[in-house]
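Could you join me in thinking about how sequence relates to backbone shape in a protein? Label the sequence line and the structure token line clearly, so we can match residues to local backbone shapes. Once you have written the record down, we can walk along the chain together.
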Amino acid sequence: MGETLGGPLFFEHYSFMGINPNGLSDTYANYQTQTKNHTLINYEYSKDNPKNYFGYSDSVWGLTASDIKGGYTASSPTNDQGFIAPTAAISSIPYTPNESMAALHFYYYVLGDKLFKEYGFVDAFSLDVMKNNGAWFANSHLAIDQGPIIVMIENYRTKLIWDLFMSAPEVKTGLKKLGFSGPGL
């Protein structure tokens, strides 16, 4: 379902910060399976590293919309320009906890203050883009990329945002009218 190789990971973050995909389905998909598989496609692509970008690995992955050197793009396996967005792997923690935690540990403990600044993780980085001059790290912190990190970590930890959003009567009514089924609907 969706783009070839799943597209940017923000599809799985923005769509499901409030709506809990676990057990949710309609005539088109089982969204628990969809969110996990889309994330695993992105993870496996980065781990396999078909474009041979320096640094991509099972601990350096995550393709989604972000700042890149010289602009902004929606990175994905079909639009990979060598830039990793920390929000992609970290916000995927409800779907791929082990893989996301490995990335979080690498970003924080190995790349450290090059990547983690006063306002959190910078928007993106490339260990490959400037092989001769060292790595590139964005100067920006985009709220639209910081927000999913916080929300999805909390959904992974406690399901708080999912539980609050999914308990709203109007959300339940709307999802049922749209043909969704799942726990609590």
